[in-house]
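Let's practice the habit of predicting before peeking. Look at the sequence and jot down your guess about where helices and strands might fall. Then scroll down.
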Amino acid sequence: MRNKLIINGIIILLIVFAGRAQNRQSETTTTYRSLIPTSKQSLLKNVDMIANTQIAFRSDFYEGEHVESKFRVEQFRLEIKGFVHKKIYFRFRHRYTSSFEPQSIDKIIKGVDFAYVTFTLSDKVQLTIGKTYADWGGIEFDLNPIYVFEYSDIIEQADNFLTGAGVYWQATEKNGFSFQILNSRTQSFEELYQGLPGVEGSDIPLAAVVNWRGKFWDGKFSTLWSYSLFNEAKDTFKNYIALGNQLTLDKLAIAYDFKWSKEDLDRTGIISRDVPDDIYPYALQNTLYYSHWTKIDYRFAEKWGLSFSGFIDTAKWLSDIDPQKTTDDWRKGYGFVPSLEFYPWKDVNLKFFATYVGRSYKYSDYAKSRVGAQDYNTSRFMIGFISPLHIF
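Done guessing? Here is the structure:
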């Protein structure tokens, strides 16, 4: 009997404490403050969070020989963008597949693509300040990077995201123009060119970019043209032209870019990397790169599509510093990227893909005899998925 009383007493005490604990937990939860104040939560309707993702299983080959096969996160760029005011827009995008090292010029890590604010000054004029994309034209660079399996040489080697300010003017319904003043690079002159003798770093290493976006034939044909002037060092410049054109029909889209980069200093750097230090230990001068790039997309069924990208990259060394030089030609690079795409759901922007990326590099006889350059081929086969996953 006594034991029963003790057990019953313990049970009653546990019930009482449990009830108090539940009340206390309930009270604590109701007094928690939201991370985002209730008064501000309506702002989220104007904000997007996007995980730009490309993940694949890939097999790499060199000269036809299998190198390795592995799963890889090819692209993961987390993006937050939206309006904090009807005239103030912000955009932040962080590339997690890039370096986390702060850069010496703009003091922000290289992996940050965007960290800018855009102010709407009028119905036709916008001002952008911060780290942004160099609006230097071409359809290839204008694509979301998750949809690109391989870039042409000029885009692949460039500093595409730079800090500065720009103005966009929607002059007419069909024509828009932008003008940007940006840092010409993210690293210092010494870091990039390693004490090049006879060339002094500029006190104002800036770039100017002028861009034209046009639409014709009810928007079926569009242009994305630009001219850029980069100050790399004192009295030393890079001139860059990009002419992008795109025809968009119901099931078919065809794009073509021509890109041309004349560089007093070898900013693209492909030729400089090929020349060994015992011939010339510094960045080369007076180089020229140009590229023809095309992309064809065909949606042959509701859930299926075909895509093909192809490009030819040309590199020339125009300098006469080498007495053994017999030609300006250095190398040509060829790229071809056919893809099969499957879109399983109408309400989600996601596709599965299978693609082959082939590259072939052909050197001039001069490059082969002077520095021992050799022609070679690389390729890879990938199966995976792509999506700008909208978190909210």
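How did you do? Residues 50-390 form a domain with the Porin fold (CATH 2.40.160.10).
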